Amino acid sequence: MHEHNYPQRTNEFSKAAKPVPPSRRSRSAADLAALQRTVGNAAVSRLVDEARQGVQRSSVDEVLAGSGQPLGEPVRQEMEARLDADFSDVRVHTGDAAQRSAAELGARAYTAGSHVVLGDGGADRHTLAHELTHVIQQRSGPVSGADNGTGLRVSDPSDRFERAAEANATRALAGPTPAKDTETETETEE
């Protein structure tokens, strides 16, 4: 199974990404080779890394700036029953931009607050239950993760929050689909 890295918001996340001057945005191979001869591999590597981080940051910002969609009602009811939580505020982001964003982070899916971004291969029930567990975790406060240099905190698959999300998704989906509470529905209709 593909390892997941899930970004988390930090205080720096809400700040605008540092703009890259046009002269640094589009360097030709010849420009980079000349720069490499002048200042060395380390400087060129930093330049390439900075450009790459700007792309990651902007793709995440682009997706999270969108409104997304609420969970579909049948899926929401099932996941609320399985995970014992209210997901009425969750916004799910799908489509090409979401897939690019997740791919740039090396993830099938990721969560930022109540936003769940589903990348290529991330729309299965297990991944959704895993990500919804991250929503629950983030409601309780900050979660661990290392800043990837763009203001995003990306968790490690071995950290306790990832292990807990994986175990919770497995546990939640192991049993039969919870039955609807018809007694509660009848009371609210009266």
UniProtKB/TrEMBL annotation:
Biased composition (Basic and acidic residues): 156-165
Chain positions covered by the region annotation Disordered: 1-30, 137-190
Transmembrane feature ranges: none
Residues of the eCIS core domain: 70-141
Protein name: DUF4157 domain-containing protein
Source organism of the structure: Solihabitans fulvus
